[in-house]
Amino acid sequence: MATLEALLGKENVAGVQPSNFDNRFQRGHLDQKLANIISELKQGETIADAELKAITSGEAATVEHKGKDPFVMRPFATCWFGTNFVPHTRDYSDAFFRRALVIKFNRVFAPSEQDPNLKQKLRAELPGILNHVLGAYAAVVVRNGFTVPVSSLEAKRKWQVEADQVAQFVDDRCEPKPGASVGTTMLYGVYRGWAESNGVRNILGLLQFGNRLEALGYGRSRTMHERVITGLSIRGMPV
Fold first, then answer.
1. Does the pLDDT of residue 94 top 70, yes or no?
2. pTM over 0.90
3. Which of 62, 76, 56, 63 is nearest to 13 (CA)?
4. Domain spans of the chain?
């Protein structure tokens, strides 16, 4: 991340957390920037997904700098985020996730392997690094896209499941069963308990919870006594 910033120049880089993209003052920092670089995402925060999609699409948006008049910005900054955990989002659509390229860094360096002067050494090699970057960029233009390794595709699929708290809840605490049904209120109570015990900050309301289950392919119905979710049961409880 530091090398990327050095290549672009500090004056061309912003550092706005994606959870703050819905703030017009914060988003205004992206104006005329080439990149938005965050070396560590804030844990537990939720991405302002609608604004992130607009930024990656270059859509015009009205933003502000404090003490100045609002203005229309058409962003072109590429967003780079470093993180040790998957960020939360309320947008589970392919339209959101196809904008992301996830690169895993699995190599763990022992203390004896770590070089405290690595940043400075890399900066001394910036001309050579830039030559490699330009060559790689030319290849991307010719291919009309990045070469995405299998590990990146798997990491993105895992993020989609983990970022979708309802899908993760179903995977942890429920069993899909044709013909089964469970009371919506009971299931929601189990979900809330699971969410609280797992540190989920943005717990969905009952209606949002039901809508998400329906989007995942489960049905909604009503008996004489209550509303139920069909095709699903709580693990360990009789159907």
1. yes
2. no
3. 76
4. 2-158, 164-234
